[in-house]
Amino acid sequence: MTNIVTFGSCLSRYIARSYKRLFAGNITNSVYHNRSDYFVNSFIKKNNNVVNQSLMNVLQSKNTIDINDDASLILLNQTIEGLGQHKIENSHELMDNLQSLKIDILIIDNFMDISARLSSGLGFNFFARPNDYKNYEENFSLGGFITTSESIENFNTIIKYFKSIQPTMKIVFVHFPYNTYGEDSNRKDRSLSFYKEFNNDSIIMIPPLSIPKIYRTEVASHFQEPQYTAYAGMINILIK
Questions:
Q1: 29: nearest Cα among 44, 48, 39, 16
Q2: What structural domains does the chain harbor?
Q3: What are phi and psi of 145, to 5 degrees?
Q4: N or C: which end of the chain has fewer CB within 10 A?
């Protein structure tokens, strides 16, 4: 059975889900809510304060009923303990699985680098949605988007890191589509700038596809299942 790790967002995760259904795969880990600079600095270079319980205790969620709400999961996905375990039952930490299992495919998408702005405060740089918290502005401020050059440098570092542990792993980089975001020209510019400048001969790349209206949903970042199936079929051919 093919062991798959995903890195990025629902795009890589749902592609892997379709691949699992079609070609008998197993999703061992899914890294969510880690912008490339956060992952590199926190888990590879280890020069950044990793999200931990002390930070989580400071942030007061507006949702006081469900402790497993999206805001909590976003933070948990950036901790050492929660890294790569987003909604996967009986999963082990990503770093443990990289050392103990043979990982066949790594599917990466760059949604976070195109979309996310990191928060800073109390010695932390991390991803959070300010509107999820009652006291965000008391301790934290929102930064800007990552530059194309920094994003490229980080993804090359990430790819090299995974390859150093799993040298036979096939890596597929899926450039996140932008046409579902309508007239957001800034997003389109960030997406195309990255696509045109990013080059890495050691991996397989899928360009930012134009998603047909029939395969779109009310959420710009989510697509209908046939679109993920199409991606999975492409990957199955490209990794041969």
A1: 16
A2: 2-45+87-116+146-238 (3.40.50.1110)
A3: -75, 150
A4: C
Tokens standing for 28? 């061992």
Q: Per-residue pLDDT tens, the chain, 240 aa: give them.
A: 899 999 999 999 999 999 999 999 999 999 999 999 999 999 999 999 999 999 999 999 887 645 557 899 999 999 999 999 999 987 789 999 999 999 999 999 999 999 999 999 999 999 999 999 999 999 999 999 999 999 999 999 999 999 999 999 999 999 999 999 998 999 999 999 999 999 999 999 999 999 999 999 999 999 999 999 999 999 999 999
- β-pair type (105-109, 170-174): parallel
- Per DSSP, the three-state class of 52 is coil
CA distance 207 to 211: 12
- What does the alpha-carbon distance between residue 67 and residue 148 come to, in Å, rounded to a whole number? 35
C-alpha distances out from residue 5 to 14, 20, 217, Å: 12, 11, 25
Q: Is 15 exposed, middle or buried (0-12, 13-18, 19+ CB in 10 A)?
A: buried
